[in-house]
């Protein structure tokens, strides 16, 4: 098979995979991924697209417990950990679809 034909076939497979991944993610849009900080100060919840959908401080007066830089880092790392869980789920979806299409 010529390089152009191989590239066209690969492109078609990748386009199909992209469409199927998008459909799978959309079908599971209800899924949420939650992470509570190690200090139990806050909880972040994201959706499968890693978008923040909820954030709660679990302790009253969080600003009195930590200085603003430490609080910001606690919030950032908690959100990042929740997003990592969502990314892992999305990666599993993509891997399954790529395997089904023989693209893995």
UniProtKB/TrEMBL annotation:
Database matches in InterPro entries: YbaB-like_sf, YbaB/EbfC
Name of the protein described by the UniProt record: YbaB/EbfC family nucleoid-associated protein
């Amino acid at each position: 098979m010529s390089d152009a034909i191989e590239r066209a076939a690969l492109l078609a497979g990748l386009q199909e995979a992209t469409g199927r991944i998008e459909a799978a993610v959309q079908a599971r849009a209800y899924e949420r991924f939650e992470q509570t900080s190690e200090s139990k100060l806050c909880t972040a919840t994201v959706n499968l697209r890693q978008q923040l959908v909820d954030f709660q401080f679990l302790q009253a007066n969080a600003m009195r417990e930590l200085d603003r830089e430490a609080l910001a880092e606690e919030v950032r790392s908690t959100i990042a950990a929740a997003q990592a869980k969502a990314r892992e789920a999305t990666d599993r979806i993509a891997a399954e679809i790529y395997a089904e299409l023989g693209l893995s």
